[in-house]
Write a structure and sequence with these properties.
The chain is of the alpha+beta class. The chain has one domain (3-115). Helix content is 53%, strand content 21%. It contains three helices and three strands. The longest helix has 47 residues, at 9-55. The radius of gyration is 25 Å and the shape is rod-shaped. The model has no long low-confidence stretch (mean pLDDT 87).
Length: 117
Amino acid sequence: MRPSEEHDGGYVTAEAAVVLPVLTLLGLALIWGLMAAAAQIQCVDAARAGARAAARSDPPAAAVAAARSAAPPGARVGVAREGDLVRVRVEARAAGPGPLAVRLTGEAVALAEDTVE
């Protein structure tokens, strides 16, 4: 055995001790990013569902219920009428500790059917 091969065993252990926690944090960050993206998509879908219901001249409570059924848990839903348009806004918090708990929003606008002749 060469002299350089006798002392290389410790380097692999030290490199693994540094790389494994970094890979774990990277994996957790990717999972959090996917969860936040999925919650954002849910907010947009919920806003669309609420806007469709409100555009059909459903009562505001029905439009809010339609949006809440598609929204992430704990989301806030707002419905507003602006002339011929109905605007629905859904806000939720992405799961995560501290600064990773970002605020997500989805908004949809639809033309009220009672204004179409």
